[in-house]
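re: ur msg from earlier - yeah i can do the DAU complex, just paste it... oh wait u already did. ok heres what im feeding in:
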Amino acid sequence: MKGVILAGGTGSRLWPLTAVISKQLLAVYDKPMIFYPVTTLMFAGVREIAVVTTEAQQESFKATLGSGEKWGIKFEYCVQSEPKGIPDALKSLPISFKNEPIVMILGDNLLYGMGLGSSLAGAFNGTGALAFGYPVANPSEYGVVELDQKGNVKSITEKPVSPKSNLAIPGFYFFDKSVHSKVLELVPSLRGELEITDILKMYKSQSALRISVLERGTAWLDTGTVESLIQAGEFVKVIEDRQGLKIGCPEEVAFREGYITGNEFLKCINNAPTSSYRDYLISVAVEFGLSVI
Ligand code: DAU
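and the outut:
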């Protein structure tokens, strides 16, 4: 399955931090924000990822991520000319993505949890759409899903003033290939954007939408505001300090998941400048008995 990371948008809620840098390249503790969704997709078994950006920022993303080869994956870069909404960005995907099912993650969403990788990989059977539910204290700030007692979807609403449930829909979605024709049928909402929740409603009307409520131990953080950006950074720092393991480290995920060989992992280390990040990669190599020169 092919992956999509949405890294466009204006980042206006984070201005002036985003005056010259894309939100998705800002630091979440010790690495650029986009490393987290990249590794989530890698854990889900995705090897080909389209990164959708604004035209102005595309070069910065290319400089940060490269071709993907060093991590055993392939990035394709495409431009959304105006931020007309999340599903609108799918219109700019390369032709090779247009007739394929996709897994899409918003570039400012961070998912973390035990066994999340393997459970995500097996979560989607390739038909219809699969999205997730996550209980939050502030559902009005998100797309919200209401489920009946059997777990069937009753309603979906984008940023409701009076939410019908506390289940927010994280920015992580699996779609079959019909999503590409569905985006062409959408009309802008009252706030003038194409809404991802309208895509989910289309699948619901065809009885083709499944919502899986993420387990309690899973962390879902978004980083769209100054407050949530700081909280996400603190979260990553606490876990990393406590466990001595990194979250969202593409080199490590690539090596542990078998996307790259030991020698390729050592090459990543050799190409990294002296830094605590490099020291961490060395500690992983040592754990696997690789000799670092
Ligand atoms: O974080 C989850 C929420 O994300 C969902 O619960 C909502 O249903 C969904 O609409 C979305 O809400 P946000 O208000 O947080 O979306 P935002 O405009 O911040 O955009 C999310 C990401 O998508 C961000 O990384 C920028 C990117 N984006 C956004 C738009 C509108 C694009 O690449 N192009 C766009 O046109």
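cool cool. The pocket of DAU is lined by residues 6-9, 24, 52, 80, 83-86, 88-89, 106-109, 142-143, 158, 168-171, 193, 196-197, 222, 224 (CB under 6 Å). ping me if u need the other ligands too
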